[in-house]
Amino acid sequence: MRTANLGGRLxxxxxxxxxxxxxxxxxxxxxxxxxVFDDWDGFRKWADSADFRAAxxxxxxxxGPPVPRPGQVFAxxxxxxxxxxxxxxxxxxxxxxxxxxxxxxTGPVAEVTLRGDRCDWEVELVVVIGRPxxxxxxxxxxxxxxxxxxxxxxxxRALQLDGERPQFSLGKxxxxxxxxxxxxxxxxxxADPDDLALGCTLRGEVLQSSRTSRMIYGVPRLVEYLSAxxxxxxxxxxxxxxxxxxxxxxxxxxxxxxxxxxVSTVEGIxxxxxxxxAPSV
Length: 281
Fold this sequence. Notes:
Elements: E1 2-6, E2 9-14, E3 17-20, H1 21-24, H2 40-47, E4 56-57, E5 63-64, E6 73-77, H3 81-87, E7 96-99, E8 105-106, E9 109-113, E10 119-120, E11 123-129, E12 145-152, E13 155-156, H4 157-161, H5 168-171, E14 178-185, E15 197-202, E16 205-211, H6 219-229, E17 237-239, E18 261-266, E19 270-277
Parallel strand pairs: 6-17, 8-14, 9-19
Antiparallel strand pairs: 1-2, 1-5, 1-14, 2-3, 3-4, 6-7, 10-13, 11-12, 11-17, 12-14, 15-16, 15-18, 18-19
C-alpha cells in the first residue's frame, strides 16, 4: 500500500493515480493524513479492498509530507560506517539520537530558503511508526512500522557545529529542512525493506550512493533501542541516518547554493526534488 498527502488530503496511490480516502470510504476514514495513524491496522484492512476506479492523476508538486504533524521526530547520527569515518567519529556502542522539530517538514517538491553559506545535504530512509511501541524486541520491530518514505536531513553546519559542543537539533530544523515523501510505502511492498538503494544528486552529479543494509544499526535495532527508552506513538518519524558523501566531509568542503536542485531517492519509494533559494533581503 502507498499513501500520500495530496493537497492536505489523505490518498491511496496506485499506478500514478490517487484515490481520495474520505470519499472512497464513505467517511469511515477522514481526509486528514495524520489522523489515519489512530487506526492504522483497520485502515490497512479497508485499503486492501479499496476500489480504485475513482482514482485520478495527480502532480507531484501538489503533494505534502506524507506524515504532516508527527508527535515526535527522531533522527539518528553517523549510522553508516563510511559516514562515521568521513566525519571523524569512532564507532559508538549505541545509536546517536537527536531530533528534528516537526516545523521543518515539507513535501517532496519544495523550495527551501538557505540559512547562511554552510547548508549540507543528508539523504535518509525515514521510518513511520504504525502502532504504540514500548520495549519492542528487534525481531518484532517491522510489525510496528506503518511504512517508510524518503527524507532529507538538511543541515546548517554553522549552527550545528560552531561553539564548544555540537548542537544538532536546531541546525537541522529551519523551515523546509525536512523534506519527506513522495509517498509512504508499507514494508510488504518492498522485496527487502532492510536493503534499499538510496542516494542524491545535485545538478546531475551523484553526491551520495549506498544501501540501507550498510547501516550500523538497522531499522529493527533502532525501533528496539528507541522504544526501550521512550514510548513511540503511531505517526512518529525516525530519520535513520545518512551514508557518506555529505558536503561538510568533502575536500574541499562543499555546500548548497541558491539555484541548486537536490534530487534524493530511495529504491521502491520515489524521489524528492528540493530547490534552494537565497534568503529574501
